[in-house]
Amino acid sequence: MALTLPPRRPARLSPVLPVLAVVALLALPVAPGGESGAGPADALSALVVVFCAVRLLRARRRPLTRTAALLLGLPVAGLASAALHAVSSDAGITGFGRYLQVFVLVPAAVLLLVRDRADFRLLAWSLVALAGWQGAVGVHQYVTRTGASYQGQDIRAVGTFGVSDVMGMATVVSFGLVCAVGLALGRAPARQRTLAACCALALLVPLALSFSRGAWIATVVTLTVQLVLAGPRRALGVGAAAVAAGVVLVGGVGVGTAMLQERIDSITRVTDAPDQSVTDRYTMWAAATDMWRDRPLTGVGLKGFPEYRDGHASLALSSGSDTEGAGAAFRRQPLLSPHNMYLLVLGEQGLIGLLCFAGCWLALLVCAVRGLWRTRAAGGRGLDCALVACGLLVWQLVDFAYADIGGPATVLTAVSFGLVTWWALAGADQVSPTPASRPSRRPVSRPSRRPAG
Q1: pTM exceeds 0.85 for this model
Q2: DSSP string, 140-178
Q3: Are 75 and 357 in contact (CB under 8 A)?
Q4: Residue 279: predicted pLDDT
Q5: Terminus-to-terminus CA distance in the chain, angstroms?
Q6: DSSP string, 229-288
Q7: Alpha helix locations (H) across 378-447?
Q8: Which of the two residues, 269 and 315, has the higher pLDDT score?
């Protein structure tokens, strides 16, 4: 009788492929001189949310756990209150939708679409690939002097985002660098860890050429936290390798130009001799604080900072920032936000909004770190996912002290919050103990039943 093999099931496509498409769309160039608003990736992210909702309806299962619903729904309370106090109904609706997209809907969709650690790693590697592409474009802009204008020279690396979003490439490269370091410090095969380490070293160059002080500070803090969480021995080894790579890049290859050195030195003297950009930032910070003092609980309403800025800012604030280069003509870009997410939320949403957002982010950080410790106690399986998630959240929380949401790259912030949410609320529960920690299942020896002789 012939034996028949069971039919092979066709390979099922991963549900995170639509999220990968959102990341891929960020590789497309932005129109020179275009407004730094929503782009194709934002439109596709809305379709991802719809796709996730349809998938849940077809499966007829509960979408979120109580903890996930509580944490993701916490910012909605402050947003609803601030939307009611907006300067206009249009501003309230558009601001409410933007915040929901970045901090609630897209993260929830990523949380529900990621099935396991393999899907998580796939998204992490997609962020590394996007960072590599944007970084390559940025380095080419620096070498050929076709980037954004910086001190009279078109050398600032901005990738495909153009001068309308000079922080876009720095954000993308930072995300990719954090993911690469987390993947390199995990327990993956040596070939994958080596590839991730090489990607991390390569991404240091475009990050430096972005001339973004806020991204530099956030990245240094995040990489330090990742190394400490990975273990003291690995921290010393990787730290020594990073110092050696920095010496080679600065001294041997010549990455450390005079402008780059001056930009680094300006970080330590922002209070002694600040440039105009730092002065504008401090002035807008003070204006946002004054708005909060006027309306401490609810703030001035969503998208209300530009309307109330001139009434609270001092004369030290300039009329805008000069943008030029990367295919765009000279333009005076108005300063419409305080470049500090915490003060933006405090000024527009008041103390209620800030407490809601801060409570959500703090709870995610605690859950993510707790999951990392559980992973290390279980033998290190999934440590790379834990380090990536913790790193993305730490980077974002530090960078929010120097930047806020806005521009085409903002949708990547939503995806990163989705990855963090998955690990904090679902991924850590998939950690299984190592075989050595499981109870032994060796068979019990039985006496022989063969007859004697």
Answers
A1: yes
A2: HHHHHT-SEEETTEEEE--GGG-GGGTTHHHHHHHHHHH
A3: yes
A4: 82
A5: 41
A6: HH-HHHHHHHHHHHHHHHHIIIIII----HHHHHHHHHHTTTTTS--HHHHHHHHHHHHH
A7: 383-399, 410-425
A8: 315
